[in-house]
Each structure stands twice: as structure tokens, then as C-alpha cells.
Amino acid sequence: MTDARQDAIARAEGYFDEGGFQADLAALVAHPTESQDPAQRPHLDRYLTEAMIPRLSGLGFAPRVLDNPDPRGGPLLIAERIEDPALTTVLTYGHGDVVRAQTDQWRDGLSPFVLTAEGDRLYGRGAADNKGQHLINLAALQAVIDTRGHLGFNMRIIFEMSEETGSPGLAQVCRDHADALAADVLIASDGPRLQADVPTLFMGSRAALAFDLVLELRSGAHHSGNWGGLLADPAMILAHALATICDRRGQIQVPEWRPDSLTPALRDALRDLPVIEAGGPQVDVDWGEVGLTPTERAFGWNSFAVLAMTAGVPDAPVNAIAGRARATCQLRYVVGTDPDDILPALRRHLDRHGHHAVRIVPRDGDPAHATRLMPDHDWVRRVAGSVRRTTGQDPHLLPNLAGSLPNECFAEILGLPTIWVPHSYRGCCQHAPDEHALQSLSRQALAIMAGLWWDLGTPADST
């Protein structure tokens, strides 16, 4: 490792050791940027104008805020630092919005918008998703610039404030500003590592579509003594409809929802990747598609889930047969699934089983496309080599995340190879009370990103 490269890494680590990272993350977490709460819209604007623009301007970027073309979405920001048009250009991404705080559910001594350090953990809403992650990337850029005097490559940035509500408007912004976002590769950070102590690269994501199944048989409920045995029970009928979608061990029964993209090459790429995490729930090895490993089920196959079900009044049941029942469902799907045919295929499937009365009510906008990039891609090799050089570890290489990100905007609309370097772990409680980042992981991530940014600005024959 060259002395100058090590100096940049040491600067990034010193930023952490001297308290800069914790102080800066506390300032970002203090913005209550809950995009799911319309009343918090002013904080979405202020996050960009008060937190991001000064930092980016200080790094030599030219930032500007964009109005969202979708009225459901918050503002966006794009910025660029072009050192030489002939150099490699990297696009990076982050989101400054967070899910609802759930303030009353955090344990005693914690508050979602006050960063709190306890042992290895930094608690706060957004500490892991995604404020801590994009802060790490920007701080590592600063370390490289301070050491080298320049980056040695060009960078463009897009930040959005609506990721937690499905990224409305992001795709249109990518179409409308394709020239301003043009790059050779996307390198960004979101989501978790597979294991907290091993770096991970993932190159795409499953997509998700949520919808309701609704059965309405009559207005109101009727006494179960007077009408039991005479009135059809919508909850029971809906349960039977759901049972046609998956069998008793969770295997998907809708033919069009069974992907054909789990190739031998993909199975080889997934073979040694872990899905079990210390402290996490025990994996049910007998759940899901027969013949697939748990890793293949999580990253190479589709999964169907019933997120919630209601009939009657669950918290205060009465002796009455409900008039309606509803199940909120979700399909997580991989490359090889036609997103435009997901709900039509379900309609055909339910009709074949006689459930014509069960309505399908979409909950999201247009269905997203799943994305994937294989580990043998040149850019993956390059980034993985840099991570290995910094840490001495072989990173886990995951063709696609099991969760969802707006990656199709970059992979399909902008046509970029996409590589995500996550700086969190699966036990971080993102989207839940007590969200936190790990200090040890964050410090290592600062070193990784400083080394990566350094390497991208170094001629290949000089590394």
C-alpha cells in the first residue's frame, strides 16, 4: 500500500477517532426527515439546503436542488465535480429521508432524532438508513482530496428525499437529467452487509410489489348465533384464496411468479454466501422452495408474504360474522419476473381457483424492475480488489440484494453498472425502533471508501 494511499485512509480513520464522524452524524440525525409524514416536508428541504449543499460545496461540487416532478415526492439534489472530462466519472447516490420515527416505541434513554452512543452502537433514526452511509462516503472523499489535492476522477451525485415512500419522481429525474447524471459506473451505499465483520458488495436488488386482496360480501357484520351457518365467512374464503398462492411450506404456486433466472452461474455465485446472522432469527430451512438453499431462496428466487390481515375488529372481537376481509400482501421478485404481469397473473390464478369475487387492489405505483450484475464484471473486480487491498478480506459478492432499492433508475434508465458498498448490518433495526449504526463497522467503512476513492483516481499501472 503506497504511503499516500495509507495517509488518505489514516485521515478518514482519524476523522472517526477524533469524534468528527459522531458529531456530523448527530447533526444529520437531528433533522426529522420523515418522508411518510407530510407535515415534515419543510425538513426534507432543509436537509438538502442546510446539511448537504454546504458540505458538497466545501468538497468542490456544484450542487443544485430540483423540484420533484411527482407531487408525491420530496426535493432532489444533483451535484458534480468534473476535474477532466477525459477521466472516469462515478455517480453516487444517497437518501436523506427516513421512515416514521415511532418515538414512543424506542426504549428508555433513546430518542430517534438525538444520536446516542452506547458501546459499539450509535442510536438514531437514519444512523444506518441512510444518513450514516452517505456521510461515510462524503467524508472519505474529503480525506482523499485533503491528501492528494484532487480526486483524480470525476464525480456526480444524486440525493433524494423520498426513498422511504418508494422514490416517486426519481426515475423521471434520471430521464430528464440523464446528461447531468452521465457516468461510467454507480458506486453508492445503502442496505446491510451479509455479516457485520465482512465487507459486502451487491450489484442489484430484488424489487417489491404490495397489494391488497379484498373480499366484500355484505355491508356490516351479523350476529354469529342468528346467522352462523347461513352467511359465508369472508375471512375463511380469503384464507382459502391465499392458500392457493403458496402451499403449506411457502412454495409459490402462481406459475408466472416462478422465475427462470436461477442459472447454474448464479447458483455458483451464491453458493458460499451466508444468510444466518448471529443474534438474528433462526432460519426455517424447511420453508420456501424445495431444492433451493436458503441463500438461493433469499437472493435468487421470489418470495410472497402476507403482511397483515383483517376481518372484524381483531382487538375487540364480537360474536358476529364479518362482512369483509382484507389481506395486505407483497411479492419480492428477482430478474426474470415480468413486473407488468404480476397482478394480471394473480388475477388469472385466482379465477382458475374460483375466487372471482376476491379483488386485487394495488398499493404501489408502477411496479419496479429487479436488477442484477454478476461478480465477474470488470467494475466488480475493480471495486472488490480495492476493498481487499484495504481490509485484507475477500468481500462477499452478491449479485443482488434481497431487499429493494431504486436501482433500476441507474441500471436501466442511465445504463450503468451498479455497485453498492453497504455500511450497515442486518441487525441494525432500520425501519424499526432503536435503529443504530455500529461504530466499528463505520470506522472500517471510512477506510474502505477512502481506499476506493483513492484507487479510482490512480492510474491502473500505479496501483
- Tell me, rounded to a whole number, the average pLDDT: 96
Overall SS class:
alpha/beta
Multimerization status: single chain
Strand content: 15-25%
Short description:
The chain has helices at residues 3-17, 20-29, 41-58, 131-148, 170-176, 224-227, 234-245, 264-270, 294-299, 342-352, 378-391, 408-413, 439-456; strands spanning 62-66, 76-81, 89-95, 116-118, 121-123, 154-160, 185-188, 192-193, 200-202, 207-216, 222-223, 303-311, 320-321, 324-333, 359-362, 396-398, 418-420, 424-425, 436-438. It is α/β, with parallel strands linked by helices.
What does this molecule look like?
The protein is of the alpha/beta class and 463 residues long. 32% of the residues lie in helices and 19% in strands. It is built from 13 helices and 19 strands. Helix 1 runs antiparallel to helix 13. The mean pLDDT is 96.
Name some characteristics of this structure.
463 residues, alpha/beta, six-stranded mixed sheet, 13 helices, 19 strands, M20 family metallopeptidase, metal-binding
Topology:
Elements: H1 3-17, H2 20-29, H3 41-58, E1 62-66, E2 76-81, E3 89-95, E4 116-118, E5 121-123, H4 131-148, E6 154-160, H5 170-176, E7 185-188, E8 192-193, E9 200-202, E10 207-216, E11 222-223, H6 224-227, H7 234-245, H8 264-270, H9 294-299, E12 303-311, E13 320-321, E14 324-333, H10 342-352, E15 359-362, H11 378-391, E16 396-398, H12 408-413, E17 418-420, E18 424-425, E19 436-438, H13 439-456
Parallel strand pairs: 3-6, 3-7, 7-17, 8-18, 9-16
Antiparallel strand pairs: 1-2, 2-6, 4-5, 5-19, 10-14, 10-15, 11-13, 12-14
Helix pairs in contact: 1-4, 1-13, 2-4, 4-13, 11-13
